[in-house]
Amino acid sequence: MTWDDVWKFLVDNIFAVICFISLFVEIIPIKFDPISALLRWLNKSVREEIKDMREEVMQNIDSVKEELRQDISVLQEKQEAQDDRIAELVKSNEMAEISRIRWEIIEFSNSIDNGQVHIRDEYRHIKDENRRYHDLIEKYDLNNGVIDEEMDKINKHYDQNKDNASIYF
């Protein structure tokens, strides 16, 4: 191969030679860098795709956040309704307990009036029930009437008979 053949090849394939040289050499007035151009083009399309995916993800996150806020709001409303219902049930139960204790104290007082004998533990139980009764009526700011009178009668009877050696009065 001669230099003439090399020059002829270079002239015939000038475009391919310029492309090959541009991979390694940058000519100041004309810049032809196909690899950089290709990478910029790929980078641009990848960035656009990533941007679109990010926007879609952000929209999905926003919609999920809104759904969660709505679900939390519904759950809070349900919980408040359940709390109100529980409070009503507790109050109803405690009102029934007040009535039961009141009846038990009156019945115990009547049994003393009728001469029925009771053991010390029954007196202690009635005194404990009276304390519970007072706690409940204070909680609901209710008035006390007959029960204090009945408890006075029960306490007097207990004091009169507590020194009795028998477990029954």
Please characterize this protein's 3D structure.
- The chain has 169 residues and is mainly α.
- The chain has one domain (33-161).
- 80% of the residues lie in helices and 0% in strands.
- The protein has five helices and no strands.
- The chain has helices at 3-12, 14-22, 34-113, 120-139, 146-161.
Estimated radius of gyration: 49 Å
Helix content: over 70%
Poorly predicted sequence stretches spanning 5 or more consecutive residues: none
Distance between the termini: 140 Å
Beta fraction of the residues? under 5%
Reading the helices and strands in chain order gives HHHHH
> From the helix content, strand content and strand pairing, which structural class follows?
mainly alpha
Number of E-type strands: 0
Mean pLDDT: 86
List keywords for this structure.
169 residues; mainly alpha; single chain
Can you lay out the helices and strands and say which pair or pack?
Elements (H helix, E strand, L loop, with lengths): L2 H10 L1 H9 L11 H80 L6 H20 L6 H16 L8
Helix pairs in contact: 3-4, 3-5, 4-5
